[in-house]
Design a protein that fits this description.
A hairpin with a 5-residue loop joins strand 2 (about 30-35) and strand 3 (about 45-50). The chain has helices at about 15, 55, 70-75, and strands at about 5-10, 30-35, 45-50, 60-65. Strands 1-2-3-4 form a 4-stranded antiparallel beta sheet, with no helix packed on it. The protein is built from 3 helices and 4 strands. It is α+β, with helices and mostly antiparallel strands. It has one domain (about 5-75).
């Protein structure tokens, strides 16, 4: 299960992870990094955009993309 290189934002449907598209929305302060895997689900990590390396170690969340659902679909 080799990981391919992580990608930031491009190719990741932001609307699935960050509600709304307004830059003044509180969620716009988040950054997403997608790591694609071969043979297992890709994984997305979300953390505060303004965090430094030390803070980022304790303020993040990761999720396998195969369990993510579109917000509009489940409403």
């Amino acid at each position: 299960m080799a990981a391919r290189s992580p990608t930031s934002d491009p190719g990741l449907p932001r609307s699935r992870f960050v509600p709304g598209s307004r830059s003044d929305h509180p969620a716009s302060a988040l950054r997403t990094v997608l790591v694609r895997y071969e043979g297992t689900p890709d994984r997305c990590t979300i953390y505060p955009r303004a965090s430094d390396d030390k803070e980022r170690q304790v303020t993040w969340i990761s999720v396998d993309l195969d369990v993510v659902v579109d917000l509009e679909t489940v409403r």
